C-alpha cells in the first residue's frame, strides 16, 4: 500500500534544522538538523504512525489535506511525503 500525506516543514529559529508535522496524522512529528534528514525523519514518522494504525483492529487512515489549504507560519512550507507499506500475508 502507498500513502501520501502533506507534511509541514518549519525551520528552527536557532539553527538550520527543521520541525516536521503532519496536519492529518495526529501527533505525528519529527525534528532534524537539515532538510535532507528532515525528509527522512518525516517519512519514518509517517511510516510508524501508519503501522500503529494498521495494528489496530479498526485502524483510521484520514483523508489527505490539500497542501494549498494548510495554513503556514513564516518560513514554513509543505511537501507531500510518500510512504510504502509492504503487507505480508497472514500465516495463521
Give a written overview of the molecule.
By secondary structure, this protein is α+β, with helices and mostly antiparallel strands. It has 1 helix and 4 strands. It is globular. It starts with a strand and ends in an 8-residue tail after the last strand. The model has no long low-confidence stretch (mean pLDDT 91).
Work out the strand percent: 25-35%
Strand order of the largest sheet: 3-2-1-4
User: What are the segments in which pLDDT stays under 50 over at least 5 consecutive residues?
Assistant: none
The N- to C-terminal Cα distance equals: 21 Å
Count of distinct strands: 4
Number of helices: 1
What is the residue-mean pLDDT, rounded to a whole number?
91
Write down the Rg. 14 Å
> Helix share of residues?
10-25%
In sequence order, what are the helices and strands, one letter per element?
EEEHE
* Class derived from helix and strand content: alpha+beta
Please tell me what the overall shape is.
globular
How would you sum up the major sheet?
4 strands, antiparallel
